[in-house]
Amino acid sequence: MIKGLYEAHLPVSNLQQSIDFYTDLGLILYKRYEKVAFFWIEEGKSWIGLWEGTESTIPYHVSLRHLAFLVDLEDIKNATLWLKERGIKVKDEFNIGTKEPVVVPNQAHAMIYFNDPDGNSLELITRLPKEIDQSEKMYLSQWEKLYS
Whole-model pTM above 0.85? Predict the structure, then answer.
């Protein structure tokens, strides 16, 4: 029945600024209206809607204003530099620093967090080949030395 996630939506304060930001991330603008724009993440399979309005002032909470973009393992390894080249600051979501992607071993994911211009939390994430029975987070390079 359910095959995947087709759409998600975020509030923004300035639609044109957000269009520029998401275009710079490599997303493809599909439709723009007066107060809303839709971007393909994967054409014909998934998109995000950006809605200009006062809802962008609602305080951030992961359950309200967060999106995670799936990337390949090789892409996540270069993500810190890729974001920096676009003037985007990586967030220290797990209090271990921001020099490279962070791994949650017992979930088998590597990830990097950053914000859009309105403080919506964005994430680049990849699935790792195996879960490790360890909850302590580490950098991807540390995980690769220990478990690959």
Answer: yes
